[in-house]
Amino acid sequence: MAMFKRILLKLSGEALEGKQGYGIDPERLGCYASEIKSVAESGVQVAIVIGGGNIYRGLQGVGVGMDRVQGDYMGMLATLINSMAIQAALETIGIHAKLLSGLAVSPVCEAMDRRKAIGYLEQGYVVIIAGGTGNPFFTTDSASALRALEIGADALLKGTRVDGVYTTDPEKDPSAVKYDALSFDEVYRKGLKIMDLTAFTLCKENNLPVYVFNMNEQGNLKRLMDGEKIGTFVTQG
Question: What confidence tier does 124 reach under pLDDT thresholds 50, 70, 90?
Fold first, then answer.
């Protein structure tokens, strides 16, 4: 029996770079698709939000004098490219996936609609939601929290390249200590950077558990769904 019936899986765009350090690495894309397949085939309803940082970040444009709003819309389009790649990879291995977006771009996707997304999930599709919130000034962290709440997800799973939340950055500080579980209030008090403040507050106020885990380790997503104690669990406490 899976730990949750319906999840929102948040992936970073940078993770798709894989070993090549830019763009979309086919090997990493294939690994992610296989991980998602293992969970979808067990009966879990899976929705996905992926960032676009491997292609373009809105704040990049601000750094060179571009209007923030224009830059953010460019970043939303980058998430659509990554989402199309995930959809193609899933369908290649036999998993049917629907692509919705906060920015409707015909003919590659449908406009995001809560009822439509839930309907697709209940029909057995993996639902990929691109285009952020559809508005500038919001990150894909905020989009993932918003979409998770819209579709009635049981939890938001944040797949990263580290195996949970640490006292400090484990990639810079070898003495960093991992937390197995935290409350939302503890995260605030300790100043831990799990998601941006808007996203995190949405989860806290709506009692949506957040699970941070290493998506790059093969089998981790399925192990998490099977109830193994991996990653860091953030709840009301």
Answer: very high
